[in-house]
Structures are given as C-alpha cells and as structure tokens.
Design a protein that fits this description.
Number of strands: 0
Structural class: mainly alpha
Strand content: under 5%
Number of helices: 6
Radius of gyration: 14 Å
Shape: globular
Oligomer: single chain
Distance between the termini: 37 Å
Length: 103
C-alpha cells in the first residue's frame, strides 16, 4: 500500500522536521562554500532555494541532485547527514563521513 499524500506531507512536507533539517544543512554548506542562493539555484530560482533553506518546501529528487552538485557533495551524503542530525538524540555514535566538509 502506498502512503497517502497527507502521510507524505507530515513526513517531509512544508515545515516538517525533515524539511527544516535539510534546509539548514543546505544553508550551512552553501555558506561554507561562500555561495549565494542564486549561485546554487540556477536554473532554480533564488526564492525556491530560500524556501528550501527555511524548511518551507522539500525539493524534488531532481532539484536535490542539482543543489547537491552545486554544493559539491553527493545527494546521498547530504541525506545521510540530515538523517544523522535528525537522530542525534538517540545518542548513537556518528559514522565516519557524516560531515559534509571535505566531500
């Protein structure tokens, strides 16, 4: 059985913990690289990147791949870092490679 649209929205939709964590991770990496929202977004708009960084929207897979390429980090690694950040309270030890630096 496929999850409903409502179910998906509560997991990764607007303002969810996932969207906020992904957005802040993207923003941190962008700022570390000294890039503007416009520089990482083309052909995506600066306003879309702003919405993503503020956790207001979750990008599609295609948009995420484009953004991660501009951030010089594979999309899988970006998602792994987000997953780790979301589960920090479980007090598990961080895995090697959970940081985006030096990607």
């Amino acid at each position: 059985m496929r999850p409903s649209t409502i179910s998906k929205s509560t997991i990764a939709g607007r303002g969810t913990r996932f969207a906020r964590t992904l957005g802040s991770t993207i923003r941190q990496r962008r700022e570390t690289l000294g890039l503007t929202q416009q520089e990482i977004g083309e052909p995506l708009s600066k306003s879309f990147i702003s919405l993503v960084e503020n956790g207001q929207v979750s990008p599609s897979l295609a948009s995420l791949v484009l953004i991660s390429a501009r951030l010089e980090v594979p999309a899988w690694k970006l998602l792994r870092v987000v997953s780790h950040q979301m589960t920090k309270e479980s007090r598990r030890a961080p895995h090697e490679g959970d940081a985006l630096e030096g990607s």
